[in-house]
Structure formats: structure tokens, C-alpha cells
């Protein structure tokens, strides 16, 4: 039986409660009516005057117990497996987000990003969020309503940036190329000269098509025509060469869960002086408070001071600090070579199985995300399921223009190593054999 266990003091408190309008039931009335199970909590300070005690709804109580997850080889387009050293860094004690030891870690991250982006720019930081946060931060700050943006579309990421830029009130012009091909410098030049955009956007590593967009000559083209160059390097940074300064890239963003082998949740971003001039010279405020670089940059010490903007993602940034240490210890060139070697090993094995690349031109193939044509008569989803069920290997189907046409195999960061490639190949070998595929003809296609 529920009892009203109010002390004299509690009763005084309850009697003092005044219902704001006569229809509202006060805590006291609820208790008197004995329809509140939590009357015992009155007088404990839990409730403020006038708040009525409702019963806690236990319908969705939980979860309970310690979390367990299956062990998997994440060999899709990302996230990849995190390096255990990075996960260990995330278990370190939290620091305050404005405490000097944490600010020193932020400084280390900025320096590590300078190396990763190959820039001497002062303006590097981690956007709090996944790759999209870097994308949206760049778009929100570098474009103003009325600006024209030229978006190179060679898969879904250009489309997404075009959508974002439109939301920020800019005039969007797209330049498309067939899925599986890269935009040519000649086409880019013609489009830039025609549209005179404030900014040109390109995706270096198109993870939906497996294309590596060459950036040769593009920075120079943009300078000649007064445009900024913004590059999406989410699926490529750390896996293939990128030289922000030497290639005259004005702004570039990435993600933590791809070649950096950290969990998803931080987006490395770099702006150079040209890009910063645009940010400083805006005639309108950035339409996002959370992503306003004049504010966020001040947390990262870009302008000589440090002020609170939002709470830094303490453990996430430990992870990126550790990831950057791993990159520095290996060296960028060694890392790029390791990714290239894994990519070659994969294709050697896949060709022996009779599989073909979706990207026809070898020079356009992205080492970090490989797109493999699904042969006629083969059920791509069944192969993915087999790989996961039997080998605990995650390989992925296509996305956007490649949906249903390809498998995507990621070779990124910690996962870009011979043993992982062999495992992927074994999964393909047995998955294809199960479907009767014998190098070019599946059983189903053969009997059709
Ligand atoms: N750009 C590219 C090239 C990507 O591969 C991805 C993620 N697959 C993104 C942007 C978006 O990143 P996120 O999912 O981390 O927000």
C-alpha cells in the first residue's frame, strides 16, 4: 500500500504550493488522491514548487547489462576497424574542455593536421561531427547567399554538397561526369571560365564510385579565375597523396573513421589564408551558429585567444590525437605506399577470380575504396551476407549511381594490410563459388 509519508515540514511545503490555474493538479492534491506513487519524494527537494509528481513509466526501462558487440572486419567504405591504440586512448580520463592540458592536446591535433594536410596554414581544426560536419562547416562559411558555386559531381558527394549549398542560399551549378570516371581538367576549365564561381568543389576520393579525382592543375585554375577550391578528402586523406599548399587547395575536410582508423565523430578541416579572407570578409553572418568558424576557430586558438564555443569532444579528440601520432610515426609516404600495395594485392586476387573494376581507367581508381563490378547472374547481396556470416567480413554494395552494380571494398588505415586483403579475397572466392560463378560466367547466367 502506498502511504503518504510527509513530515511536518513536507506538509508545509506541499500546502504552500499554489496551482497556477485551477485545472492543474498540485503535488499535494495528487498525493491526497493517492494516485501518485512518488508522494514519498515530496520534501526531498526533488520537485520544485508546483511540479506534480507523475509516476515513472517503466515501459522502456533499460538497456541493462554490459554492452557486447560482434567482432567484425569492417572492409566496406567505412567506418573501418579502429586501431586498438586509438580505442585505448579514448579510455583515458576526461579533461575539462578548457583545461590547459586539453588545450595542449588541441594544439597537438592542429599540428598533426598540418602534417596530414601538408599545409603550413594556421587554420586547422576538428569539426565536431562526422565528415558531413566538415562538409557543412566548409559550405556554411565559404559561401554566401548569392554566390555561385560550381560543384563537380562524380558520385553522391557532389550531389550532397550541391544540396547543402542550395540550402545556404547560393546559386549552384553542377558539372557531371559519368559514374566511374573523373572530371577532366579541360571540362573543369571550361566550366570555371564560363560560370566564374566563387568556389569550385571536388571530391578527391569518391567512395560511391571508387574514383580518385585528379587535382592536378585545378588549384591553379581556381587562382586564375578568382575561385576558391574546396576538396572533400573524407575517403582519401591519409590513404593517397594530398598536398594542400603545393596543390593550392584553399579548404579541405575529411573524417576520422576512414584512413585515420579512429571512430566516426571528428572531421579534420583546413582553410588557408585565401579561404579565411572570404570568411572574414563575409557581408552576412554564417547561417549556422555551431559551425561559424569565427566562433569555433576562437576555441581552437585561431585568433590568438581561446574562448568557449561548445564543449570539445574530449575522448573523440584523444582518439584523433592518437591517430595523428600513428600517421606521423609511419610517415605519410610510407602510409600512401601501404595503401597502394593493399589495393594492388586486392586487384591481383580479384582478377584471378574473374572480377573486374568498375572504374575503367586505372589512373582514376581510388586505392582506399575499391568498386568491383557485380557479374551478371551473381547476387551481390548474397555474397555480402556470406562474407559477413562466414568470414565476419563486411564488404558493401554500391551507393547512389553504383547501387546494385558494384561491391565496395575499403582498404583504409589500419585495415590496409595483407592479411585483411587475403580475408576479403577468401570471402569473395567462396561466396562466388557458392553461386556457381566461374570467372566470367555464373551458373545462373550459363543456364539461362
Ligand atoms: N564524403 C565522402 C567521400 C565520404 O565517403 C563520406 C562518408 N562515406 C562522407 C563525405 C560523409 O562522411 P560521414 O558519413 O562521416 O558524415
Structure description:
This protein is α/β, with parallel strands linked by helices. It is 38% helix and 13% strand. The protein is built from 15 helices and 14 strands. It has helices at residues 8-16, 27-32, 84-89, 100-117, 131-142, 156-167, 185-195, 218-224, 273-280, 293-299, 314-330, 332-352, 380-391, 418-434, 443-447; strands at 73-74, 123-128, 148-153, 171-176, 199-203, 205-206, 211-212, 228-232, 251-253, 266-271, 369-373, 393-394, 396-397, 406-410. The strands form four sheets. It has a seven-stranded mixed β-sheet, with helices on both faces. Helix 6 links the parallel strand 3 (148-153) and strand 4. Helix 13 (380-391) packs across helix 14 (418-434). It is globular and about 75 Å long. It starts with 7 loop residues before the first helix and ends with a helix. The site of 4'-deoxy-4'-aminopyridoxal-5'-phosphate has 14 residues, from helix 5. 4'-deoxy-4'-aminopyridoxal-5'-phosphate (PMP) is lined by residues 77-78, 130-132, 157, 203, 205, 207, 232, 234-235, 255, 264.
Task: Break the fold down into its secondary structure elements and pairings.
Elements: H1 8-16, H2 27-32, E1 73-74, H3 84-89, H4 100-117, E2 123-128, H5 131-142, E3 148-153, H6 156-167, E4 171-176, H7 185-195, E5 199-203, E6 205-206, E7 211-212, H8 218-224, E8 228-232, E9 251-253, E10 266-271, H9 273-280, H10 293-299, H11 314-330, H12 332-352, E11 369-373, H13 380-391, E12 393-394, E13 396-397, E14 406-410, H14 418-434, H15 443-447
Parallel strand pairs: 1-12, 3-4, 3-5, 5-8, 8-9
Antiparallel strand pairs: 2-10, 6-7, 9-10, 11-14, 13-14
Helix pairs in contact: 4-11, 12-14, 13-14
The chain binds 4'-deoxy-4'-aminopyridoxal-5'-phosphate (PMP).
